Amino acid sequence: MLPVCVIGLGLIGGSVLRAARAAGRDVWGYTESGQDAAVARADGFLVESDVDAALTLAAQRDALVVIAVPLPSLASVLRRIVVMAPNCPVTDVISVKGPVLDAVERLAPSLTFAGGHPMAGRSESGWAAGSAELFHGAAWVVTADEKTDLAAWRIAAELALDCGAHVVPTTAYEHDDAVARISHLPHVLAAVLAAVGADVGPLPLALAAGSFRDGTRVAGSRPELVRAMCEGNAPALLPALDDALGRLGAARGALASTGSLKATLDAGHRGRLALIGQQQSEWLAVTVDLTAPDVHDALQSVGAQGGRVVRLAENTALAEIPRSRVDNDL
Amino acid sequence: MLPVCVIGLGLIGGSVLRAARAAGRDVWGYTESGQDAAVARADGFLVESDVDAALTLAAQRDALVVIAVPLPSLASVLRRIVVMAPNCPVTDVISVKGPVLDAVERLAPSLTFAGGHPMAGRSESGWAAGSAELFHGAAWVVTADEKTDLAAWRIAAELALDCGAHVVPTTAYEHDDAVARISHLPHVLAAVLAAVGADVGPLPLALAAGSFRDGTRVAGSRPELVRAMCEGNAPALLPALDDALGRLGAARGALASTGSLKATLDAGHRGRLALIGQQQSEWLAVTVDLTAPDVHDALQSVGAQGGRVVRLAENTALAEIPRSRVDNDL
Lengths: 330, 330
Hints:
Two copies of one chain form a homodimer. Chain A has helices at 11-22, 34-42, 51-61, 74-84, 98-107, 150-162, 172-198, 202-207, 210-216, 223-231, 234-258, 262-279, 295-304, 326-329; strands spanning 4-7, 27-30, 47-48, 64-67, 89-92, 112-113, 116-118, 139-143, 166-170, 282-289, 308-312, 316-323. By secondary structure, the first copy, chain A, is an alpha/beta fold. The first copy, chain A, has three domains: 4-170, NAD(P)-binding Rossmann-like Domain (Rossmann fold); 176-260, 6-phosphogluconate dehydrogenase C-terminal fold, CATH 1.10.3660; 278-329. The longest helix of chain A is centred in the middle third of the chain and has 27 residues, at 172-198. Chain A starts with a strand and ends with a helix. At the A-B interface, helix 7, helix 8, helix 9, helix 10 and helix 11 of A face helix 7, helix 8, helix 9, helix 10 and helix 11 of B. Chains A, B: It comes from Labedaea rhizosphaerae.
């Protein structure tokens, strides 16, 4: 098991550090927050006080470097890795993948790199909010684009599995489109709903019950964190917003002209059933040959089918594909 | 305490029957569902096997008649009340108020009527899903339009208080606008979100976490029930949809042109804080003189401020107005 050097010890980076140690790995990290560093050291972790020291140790020990800083800090971290630990395998846990891949190709094309994104979070942030269990049972995307180095993919996937997650292999583009639809669009719609409910005086809020509470919950998150997440994925979020605008406009038009919301509500109900069906589906085991020439396609296919890699052997990945029951129910 | 005759024994009507009996009232009902009637009788309730028999008993005993049928059945029930129990006070528990008021004015203008809408529900429906506790702590709108008979308003409000709810007085128009924003729009947005997430293949759903699950939860409700609720309030839902479309379009435009979602997300965050703030606010006690010439205005003002009536005395209503703390927090 490779040692792990985590650059950035917020909620996600701090949880990776804890989970990797719990899995038996040697770990250390770096954070620019003196306060987080002090607390992490008090929790028994080695936290270097400058990034070059952490990366020097990574180079000496052939560690996996995990970039866990916000997107705006990515470029400066990549530049330090190229100088201090150019031969270490590298992954990241940033919530968009296309812009990360672009930055790596531009600033550090020689790195052995595969991008990652664990689909887990909390409303709190910072080292104190993290835990070794944060990723248990969660999906953890590890991108497998055509150019992805398979050794880097495997190293990043092993970290995800060690952290208790399952690995969803897909491309950076497909990842960004998917999270725009199921993570970023929900935040925008929740904000719109909260404003429509609140901006005409107190009466609507006084009558609000479960549907409004659920529909606006994520509007309670800190707007600056939501902005960073959504705005960083603007190229994928714009088409998702257009999709939503088109469907909402069609609902409005149908209600005005025919009095019916049948098409809108039936499609939404099917979508919700598909979500439930996928989460409750049986899983078909499939084996991916990691030595095959079309391995990138095979991995991408697992993700495209809603599947996941649950174990890695020497030359194979054991994956599971959902056999959704929802098609039979509708 | 007036006896209570409930016409329609689904989730809401059946819960009113139970709650009114639990409050010590004589109660009986009617349902066209032979199965629900049999179960209700087995539960110890008097359930007449035709609507005229139930209304005859109401006329004999000067009971309050509660209309708890779906909107499409309202007209036929009103016609029977006019014939069989024309002097009984009447209220309803249908989820729109403007169309109900129109039907009463058209078909039964001589009735002593005030409309009602308890803001409580469950995803299950029918007699079996009801309970005497369904309305505990819930808001129960009783409309107080300029033409509303104050005696009818008081009788309907006393039923709501007996059922454990608090009474929100407002106009039919303001009620319908409010529920369009906080109950019907959430269903349409949940449907749109579920479809955007589900209609491009399994990957997005495989990555979906809390924000998508919360944002699509009500899309799991039975579409025909959601349709009846939303389509019956089309005149108020259309402007709410336009408000949402305008805000979503503005978000899209800002993201495309400036890369920023700040205005959208800040407004949504303020709305969510206003919801939390209103629900956690301190309450200022105010007394409404039910004999004053401007009593309708005074009652409407309670609702417009997000307030509620919590007790009725001989000539006064004790109300509470929220003193929101959220203004100080922002």
